[in-house]
Amino acid sequence: MVSAAALTRSLRPTKHYDLIAAVYDSQRFGCRCGSILNDVEQAIARRLVARHGKVLDVGTGTGRFAATLAGGSSSIVALDSSSRMISISAAKREQSEPAKRISYVIGDGASLPFSSGSFDAVISVKLLSHVSDIDPFVSEMARVLRRGGQIIIDTSNPLARAYGHSSRRPAIQSYEDHFHTLPEVGRVFQKHSVEVSRRVTYSALPISLVHLALCPHPKVIPSSLLKLVIGAKRGLLAFVEGIKLK
Ligand SMILES: C[S@@+](CC[C@H](N)C(=O)[O-])C[C@H]1O[C@@H](n2cnc3c(N)ncnc32)[C@H](O)[C@@H]1O
Ligand SMILES: [Zn+2]
Question: In angstroms, rounded to a whole number, what is the distance separating the alpha carbons of residues 124 and 79?
């Protein structure tokens, strides 16, 4: 049972995302490194999420993961607490045939409006970094997942955490960031009978450093080099897969 205070806390970032919804995509993915980062992250998600399942994207934002996974899934539900972010995501529905299979829900990731065991996979990227306590979110993701289903979330290396405290990527208006490492995620997963099964890392350098120092200089740093740095197999950022055991 989630308390009223916990629910209020979990919905705080919503206002922020309502305000910046219209510029979210251009701020994050409009520059060279942002666009490459988006491609790398979408490719990892497509690789990790098993095909033909029923997928839930929690904190879908403007829908980049729902959109890229739509082609390989039997259905996708895209949930976000910000009605503005959901509107932007839904406006992209006509852009591709698979995207027409996405359903949009305004809701709270800490109190999901779905029955237990109703999804084959749950993905949630760059949402848990907005909350200090990930437990209510992981608990809900695990509840709505069938046995043997996958949870896919993102984590960051302690080095990225140290860098993040000293420098934020200036163009991005992000809600406050909390860095959750793999051991912390592993502990919370375990509490909810989810076992870490795979981890895919990327981005050899902190992305804010790439954006500041490399991205603005296409003549010296070609996009092919940016792709090597951001797509590096050993990196500071990671997608983690957990499997629900029972
Ligand atoms: C940084 S964006 C990430 C969006 C998308 N997953 C991506 O990677 O581009 C964080 C999103 O989480 C949503 N969010 C924040 N708190 C939430 C909550 N308690 N329940 C559901 N969504 C939430 C925000 O509205 C925002 O759209
Ligand atoms: Zn950039």
Answer: 10
